[in-house]
Design a protein that fits this description.
Elements (H helix, E strand, L loop, with lengths): L12 E4 L2 H6 L4 E5 L4 E8 L2 E6 L10 H10 L3 E9 L1 E2 L2 E2 L1 H5 L6 H10 L3 E10 L2 E2 L5 H11 L7 E3 L6 H10 L8 E5 L9 E6 L3 E12 L10 E9 L5 E8 L3 H12 L40 E13 L2 E2 L2 E2 L3 E6 L21 H5 L2
Parallel strand pairs: 1-12, 8-10, 15-19
Antiparallel strand pairs: 2-11, 3-4, 3-5, 5-8, 6-7, 8-9, 11-12, 13-14, 13-16, 14-15, 16-19, 17-18
């Protein structure tokens, strides 16, 4: 492979702002939907294709379906920035996408056929022998549209707008198709790898949850034990406590305080609502406390059960199935709430929206 822009490259990033601040930047920015998948830089040089992740690890072997599509739909020599996505019933499904990362080649091939992915491009770094990283985004966007004008599914070009009313409408309705906000991109800026020059606007919500366990921080020691994260639960319709995610991001002082508080409430797993997760088959999906994720590798995910009597208010962005899509933010204890009152019914229901309406040009 010999391209004017070569891997590995870290993609350009965004910082969180309010919608008001993002719209204040108009007309100097362009607004796009914020896709919720795997960020991916695509490098194609003839029959050679490399898919680079946000961390620069290669995704190529996991998406043979996209590799073939890129050979068919993209120019011979090109470097794109975009998002790998997977949908079911007109909605993005991140859990299904995560299952595409599998060590077994036979499993990878089977998933490529049964749950094919698609790609949404939103930036162009190079084409032919020309690097575009120093060009303003306005130029890169125009070139992107031109170069992918004839590309067919599963390759798409993201929609854009410079209309504040349209951007606000997108923010309100696109979540129903599994998207998680909008992004404002400065039209005059060059492509800056790993630089946070874009602006992202994401949904902000709160929920009351049961704190049912904790993990230790990676810097925790026997001499100074520190809490890493709190394991959170909500009661489902069968009145079973469902693991919905974690809350983290505390100062070191707060980690020490929380460890002292929660460790005093530790119970045996046999006496805990999540005791059944001791069984090996309960960890196959990697979605339960202690279950290894394909992303975490050898990371220690062991956890400690506590009596499920504490209720906390947490901030979250949106749900992915029955779980928080991202790490929740602890806000305060809710001593006035009973754990059994923490159910899924309190969560906002988002009206569905047809993903095809977003992908259509």
């Amino acid at each position: 492979m010999d391209l004017p822009v070569m891997p590995p490259i870290r993609p350009m990033l965004a910082k969180s702002v309010t919608m008001e601040k993002a719209l204040d930047q108009l007309p100097y920015v362009q607004i796009e939907p914020k896709w919720d998948g795997f960020r991916c830089l695509v490098f194609r040089d003839g029959d050679e294709v490399i898919l680079g992740s946000r961390s620069t690890k290669e995704l190529t072997r996991y998406f043979p379906d996209l590799v073939e599509a890129f050979k068919r739909e993209l120019p011979e020599r090109i470097v794109l920035d975009g998002e790998i996505l997977l949908a079911r019933d007109g909605r993005l499904e991140f859990d299904l996408l995560s299952q595409r990362i599998h060590p077994a080649e036979s499993r990878v091939q089977m998933l490529a056929e049964t749950t094919p992915a698609f790609f949404v491009a939103f930036d162009l770094l190079a084409v032919g022998d020309e690097s575009l990283v120093d060009e303003p985004f306005s130029v890169r966007r125009d070139r992107l549209v031109a170069e992918l004008a004839t590309a067919q599914a599963p390759v798409h070009v993201t929609r854009t707008t410079s209309d504040a009313a349209v951007a606000e409408e997108w923010f309100g309705v696109f979540e129903g198709a599994g998207l998680d906000g909008v992004v404002a991109k400065p039209l005059a800026k060059p492509y800056m790898p790993n630089g946070r020059i874009m602006l992202k606007v994401k949904h902000a919500r709160t929920a009351d949850v049961v704190v049912a366990g904790y993990r230790l921080h990676k810097t925790s020691t026997p001499e100074r034990p520190l809490l890493g994260s709190m394991l959170l639960g909500l009661y489902n319709d069968e009145r079973k406590l469902q693991h919905v995610g974690v809350a983290a991001s505390f100062t070191e002082t707060r980690r020490a305080e929380l460890y002292e508080q929660l460790s005093a409430m530790q119970v045996d797993l046999d006496d805990h609502p999540w005791g059944e997760w001791m069984q090996a088959e309960a960890h196959e999906s990697g979605r339960l406390p202690g279950g290894q994720s394909r992303w975490t590798g050898t990371k220690d995910l062991s956890w400690y059960a506590i009596a499920p009597t504490l209720v906390a208010e947490v901030g979250y962005e949106h749900m992915e199935g029955t779980r928080f899509r991202h790490t929740a933010q602890f806000k305060r204890w809710r001593d006035d709430r009973e754990p059994e009152s923490c159910t899924y019914e309190q969560l906002e229901e988002v009206a569905s929206y047809d993903l095809d309406e977003i992908l259509s040009r």
